[in-house]
Specification:
- With about 270 residues, the protein is mainly alpha-helical.
- The chain has one domain (about 35-270).
- The protein contains 11 helices and no strands.
- α4 runs antiparallel to α8 (about 195-220), α4 runs parallel beside α10 (about 255-265) and α8 packs antiparallel against α9.
- The longest helix is centred in the first third of the chain and has 45 residues, at about 60-105.
- It is rod-shaped and about 90 Å long.
- The two termini are about 50 Å apart.
- The model is unreliable at about 1-15 (pLDDT under 50).
Length: about 270
């Protein structure tokens, strides 16, 4: 844990072992909430120690809050677009597998039964890939299992394509299998496409700076409007939590279960 915290404060991201992505979002946002509150009172404390009549938002403070709003909107948009891409890919994968299963019916009964058995194993492997969540060992095992069954399906289709009697069926099955296998690479890439840590770290830093200026410059008569300040801190941390939750495809409240159901429904096609 110490090296990860060290990287966090020195802005040195490590994509394999990351404090931001290995730690639950609610823990990070809870720490951020406490730090933002502390920065507000630090700003208020320093204002008490200085002689100043400045009140309200000056140009610098207004620019900083505007930058925070812009960065929140940008980061939220980035996380949401990546989440939406993952949803579309899962739906496309379910359609590709379903198409390949249906095209197995173009073969003779013995070959069709063999295809469907391999498809049943492949579907279970793809379901296990999602249900493994954050367990890297189970994820790797599910990927290897799926690759094994995909290779078996491809080998069977390639072998049957040599028979002129299967020409029409092979012309339909081979492109379907190719699409089914290729989409797994897209899904893997989409799961790893997250908002860069440097952007999240910048978002945290600006949030803390804004909290400091609230205490130092915005408090009237050297007193805090606790409701307004608390609302700002709470809403900011909630938005950051949602951003991080959208950006984590294998955990959190916002998940892909509804789209994964399309792959689960393929089981009924194989009965």
């Amino acid at each position: 844990m110490k090296p990860d915290i060290f990287r966090l404060f020195l802005f040195i991201p490590d994509m394999k072992h990351s404090f931001l992505y290995d730690t639950d979002a609610w823990i990070i946002c809870s720490i951020l909430f406490v730090l933002m509150t502390g920065m507000v009172y630090l700003g208020l404390f320093l204002r008490h120690k200085t002689i100043t009549s400045a009140e309200g938002l000056g140009p610098v403070e207004a620019s900083l809050f505007g930058l925070l709003a812009l960065l929140l909107a940008f980061t939220f948009g980035e996380a949401d677009s990546r989440f939406d891409a993952r949803r579309r890919i899962i739906t496309t994968e379910a359609n590709n597998i379903g198409t390949a299963i249906l095209r197995a019916d173009m073969y003779a009964d013995s070959d069709r039964i063999a295809f469907r058995k391999d498809f049943a194993r492949y579907v279970e492997a793809r379901l296990n890939y999602y249900e493994a969540k954050r367990d890297e060992v189970k994820v790797a095992a599910a990927k290897e299992d799926a690759n094994t069954h995909a290779a078996s399906l491809w080998k069977r289709a390639a072998s049957l394509s040599k028979d002129p009697a299967n020409l029409a069926a092979s012309n339909q099955m081979i492109p379907a299998l190719n699409a089914m296998i290729d989409i797994t690479t897209e899904r893997e890439a989409a799961s790893k496409a997250t908002v860069p840590e440097s952007i999240l770290l910048l978002l945290f830093v600006i949030s803390l700076c804004c909290s400091f200026f609230i205490g130092y410059c915005v408090a009237h008569d050297k007193r805090l409007n606790r409701l307004a300040v608390g609302g700002f801190i709470f809403l900011t941390t909630i938005v950051i939590y949602v951003i991080m939750d959208l950006d984590r495809p294998r955990r959190g409240i916002i998940n892909l279960d509804s789209n994964q159901q399309y792959i689960r429904d393929l089981r009924t096609m194989l009965k």
